[in-house]
Amino acid sequence: MIFPDAADAATAPICSAKGCRAPAVWVLAWNNPKLHTPERRKTWLACEEHREHLSEFLGMRGFLKDVVTLQEWEAMN
Ligand SMILES: [Zn+2]
What we know:
This is Acetone carboxylase. This protein is of the alpha+beta class. It has one domain (about 5-75). About 30% of the residues lie in helices and about 20% in strands. It has helices spanning about 5-10, 50-60, 70-75, and strands at about 25-30, 40-45, 65-70. Strands 2-1-3 form a 3-stranded antiparallel β-sheet. The longest helix is centred in the C-terminal third of the chain and has 10 residues, at about 50-60. The radius of gyration is 14 Å and the shape is globular. The relative contact order is 0.23. The structure holds zinc ion (ZN). Zinc ion binds near residues 15 and 20.
């Protein structure tokens, strides 16, 4: 018997916050101007709980460019 949901869960993106194993809902697109060309986008994944914390971390450093849902991000990229 095959459980398609289990297969999906195994490959589902996980939140980037340290120690968090929750499925990612948000994509935080960021850029460090000292390291990256302006059009380059690095991404962090965040669950509902850690979106604010991770956004703040990047925002304080002036790195945060965009916060979109994982669904939207996958549609765009
Ligand atoms: Zn999390």
